[in-house]
């Protein structure tokens, strides 16, 4: 079972894709992630949060529950439809000028290959563990190259503990890497050029 940990939708359950198409981020890791974010940025209220490789949408919807405006990117169309259903289940506004949540059904590479409507304050990327390190690093480079990051943005990458630290592009500096069982969260800061 996956659930929202805290915030306005705290305790609400989320549907997860059937089979092994995704690997949901555990409640424990999400709690650790949001505790770390709270120590860095304070409240998420009003911040823009980008969830890449969204899966069930648990991380992005957790951010929404805590006050962020969220975009979730998932390449599998059925899984993206599940994310949309989960967003409706927890009461998020989708679509229109006052949307709180946007679900993008498309590849992360294609999405990041164009400029966003506005930069993001927090980016969380949870690519499939078998995804090549070079692809993860290309995603990070695209965030910088195409203006996805606000000044002082936080970038978090979830990987297997067997994977090396990502090679951060110029502008993103590693803050910390923390292991939680089989998962490591790599957290960096984006420092925009003066």
Automatic annotation (TrEMBL):
Give the matching Pfam families: Cons_hypoth95
Q: Which domain of life is it from?
A: Bacteria
- InterPro entries on file: DNA_methylase_N6_adenine_CS, RNA_MeTrfase_RsmD, SAM-dependent_MTases_sf
Q: Which UniProt keywords apply?
A: Methyltransferase, Transferase
According to the UniProt record, where is the region Disordered?
Answer: 1-26
Question: According to the UniProt entry, what is the EC number of this protein?
Answer: 2.1.1.171
Q: Looking at its record, which EC class is this enzyme?
A: transferase
Q: Which GO terms describe its molecular function?
A: 16S rRNA (guanine(966)-N(2))-methyltransferase activity; nucleic acid binding
Keyword Methyltransferase attributed: yes
Q: Does the keyword Signal apply?
A: no
Q: What is this protein called?
A: 16S rRNA (Guanine(966)-N(2))-methyltransferase RsmD
